[in-house]
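Changelog-linked ticket: N-(aminocarbonyl)-beta-alanine example.
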Amino acid sequence: MSILIKNAFLVFEDRVEKGDLLTKDNQIAQVGGCIEAPADRIIEAEGCYVFPGFIDTHTHFDLEVGNTVTADNFPSGTKAALAGGTTTILDFATQERGMTLMDAFHKWQKKAQGSSCNYGFHMAVSEWNQERIAEIPLMIENGITSFKMYMVYDNMRLSDGVIYQAIQYLQDEDCIIGVHCENDDILQARVRELKAQGKTSPRYHAISRPNLIEADGVGRLMDAANLAKGPAWVVHLSTKEGLDIARRARERGQEVYLESCPQYLVLEESNYDEPDAAKYVMSPPLRSKADQEALLRAMAAGEIDWIGTDHCSFTMAQKAAGERDFSKTPNGGAGVQNRAELVYTRGVKGGYFDMVAMGQLMSTRAAKLFGMYPQKGTLQVGSDADLVIFDPHCPHEIHAATNLHNCDNSPYEGFLAEGKTRDVILNGELAVENGAVAITGKGQYICRRRCGRYRK
Ligand code: URP
Ligand code: ZN
């Protein structure tokens, strides 16, 4: 199968150039200039941008949370991802206490069967001991070179000492740990305090976890990584205070990678006053306009490395578990389909950064750090034919009813997006055509290499 894309704006890593791109089987065969070659399909892309396939570094599909499971599984979540231009997701396989890392890996491989976009896993670990450490070589062999540790959630929480030891061990292997940074002790005390005062609605979820709760976690992670002499990756950074702490760590020479999410760029704490506010109960919570501004400027300056969605969807019926107590609401929201249109609208049309920066935030840097570059994340001859044709002139509203997520709500309901993913080429095939998913179930497992630590 060969596909010739004509007259597009090609988004390279350092520039945008008008030209053509030819794929042959699952590779980019030619890129740039005017290409006159026969092809099975010719796609006219005048006025559109061609990006390397987008990579979502942070999804939770088919995740059991308490006594419920996320609304999206891999088939529904990856189909929605693909429609939005995401050709690779990295989901968090989760090792529950008492389980081996290999058991978790096999469990997630099974869950991911039938995926419509390519997929890989980070391994979220809930224990760090000799047995788990002995499995790390097997993880690397099987393409898992990034891990996650939580400072929160009773079933996953690990101590600062463990995080320090894990960073120390894994950095020698060129593996990295993403950390969910929050101060659990204080936030739990605040939850108890609020509930005792009868403050139980969703807005108190945010009040229980103010900016300093995250900033404290980021600070402890930076110190642990500094002492361990290894890299630090902050997942879903949401605050200007956390950003400042990470900046200071970089200034003293530390290797720090920062991820943020669309919800911290377009939604804000006032959303908790809406009637269906349970859909905004996620951790970290929504923040202020000042935080949005700081994150967007940091993206423009290249300080934030990439944007993942933290897609972790629950229906309103599931969210109703917290009707009388915000702390019982399953945490998370749906967004895997909407990342590109949100980032484009808020970041590019909002005047903060250009399409080159968008390509870096949506694809290139994630491909580099997570061991997929240059097969993914770049428009180079020989790279995989995972491509997005993005139409910058396509105003439309986001609605849960038209999203492909298996979820009856969207935190972005009614958001006016300016551009939209038009076509997607996945593994060399035209998988999304004019916004409609044409091919499903053809996602492949990405056995990733060790981390490409570009900030070392
Ligand atoms: O609220 C969220 N983000 N839920 C998903 C799990 C996590 O904390 O990343
Ligand atoms: Zn998450």
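Closing comment: Example verified and attached. Residues 60, 180, 282-283, 310, 312, 331-332 surround N-(aminocarbonyl)-beta-alanine (ligand 1) (CB under 6 Å). The longest strand covers residues 2-11.
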